[in-house]
Design goal:
With 162 residues, the protein is mainly beta. It has two helices and nine strands, in the order βββαββββββα. Strands 1, 2, 3, 4 and 9 form a five-stranded antiparallel beta sheet that branches. The protein has a four-stranded antiparallel beta sheet with strand order 5-8-7-6, with no helix packed on it.
Amino acid sequence: MKIENNKVVKMHYAVMDSEETLIDSSYDHQPLEFIQGVGFLIPGLEKAMLGKVVGDKFVADVPAVEGYGEREEGFVQTVPQEMFAGIEDLDVGMQLRATTDEGEQTVIVIGMEDDMITVDGNHPLAGIDLKFEVEVLEIRDATEEEIAHGHPHGEGGCGHNH
């Protein structure tokens, strides 16, 4: 069976940046399980998965534009500290949820100076070319319920209400 849309895929992966610095890996814990074609994976990796079979081990080079996108300097803003009233221990590196014109978004505090706070709304991996080492472990047809929910279910269903 080949990987195509609406197949449940179980895989191990390691992801590195262009200097081969390890960013994340599933090899030390549970493999990743997802439904191909629902947009769970970044576009470049999802495209690289197509046509693979159980036992395939491969490397996928994913440019930033097919990963987490290019960095958008407009997503970096400096705002008055009073906009963060009620948030205790505000510090550089803290992730916060912000309401923007595009809806809820995660921002990271990247600077604090006087009464001004600089936040970055870019994904931490935006602008970074990625290299994935992948091992395909299992492939099966997704059930109608899994397709409707957009994610694989373990034995006994998905464990939450939809």
